[in-house]
Amino acid sequence: MEDKNQYISTKKLLDSAQSLIVVLPPDPSADMVSAALSLHLSLKASDKKSQIGCGSEVQVASNLQGAHEIADSIGARNLVISFNYHEDDLEKVDYDVRPDGKFYLMIKPKENAPVPDVSNVKYAYSGASADLVITFGIGSLEELGKIYADEKKFLDEAKILSLNISPKPTSFTPNLLHQTSGSFSELVAVLMEKIGLKPSPDAGKNLLGSIYEETKELTSPRMTADTFSAIAFLMRHGARLPNQQAFVPRFAQPAFFETPSDPNVPEEAEEGNLSTGEE
């Protein structure tokens, strides 16, 4: 059953947030990935700052748009440089900022200790920051796995909106959009329509394709009026069902207003008939 108050409060949260982080639990379903990614893409298209993360490798279909934006972390403030090295071999760590503005980090090993191997150096970010975090399908923050382990302090203090297709409550945030729905993609499409968030072209394609799959090509008995409303909303914004051809209107050939001449009648005879009125 739809709770209109949840949509109203969700709209206020999204309208007031300028920076957002969409977070997926480890091993999310294809539908959940499509829904979360589409919400992220549409938020970006509405001139908000958004990022999306998942604590595990995400398996996605080849036709899912924007999947390369899903990161394995949500930190974006601190640059972290890591490599394999034993602390006992380390003499000191130093840095220098040159007049040209370049930053140099120096790792000095002890005498006779091995030199750090540059091929093992990895770069990442930590230190998440956002006005609003949006979670999908979790009952506790611990279910976010690596994401929560990496950014526990931030997530424990962050303003969080929980999205779920089950009405069961959760304790880690009072901000809920928990609606009984056939899929996360349907829930996100309905949310976009109700709050006036326009789906980006890629988001519309992702959502409609996912709804099509989740409803077994629109044959599922679990389909509701909300399902058809979501489909109509996405199609109004340019999305098309899989294998659906673009509609190209065809117009009837306009009628000729002049009777074509009979090629078997000489031109002189035609002119004579016209001047005398003979048939």
UniProtKB/TrEMBL annotation:
Gene3D superfamilies: inorganic pyrophosphatase (n-terminal core) (3.90.1640.10). SUPFAM superfamilies: DHH phosphoesterases. Residues 257-279 are annotated as: Disordered. Residues 265-279 have a biased composition (Acidic residues). InterPro entries: DHH_sf. This is DDH domain-containing protein. It comes from Candidatus Collierbacteria bacterium CG22_combo_CG10-13_8_21_14_all_43_12.
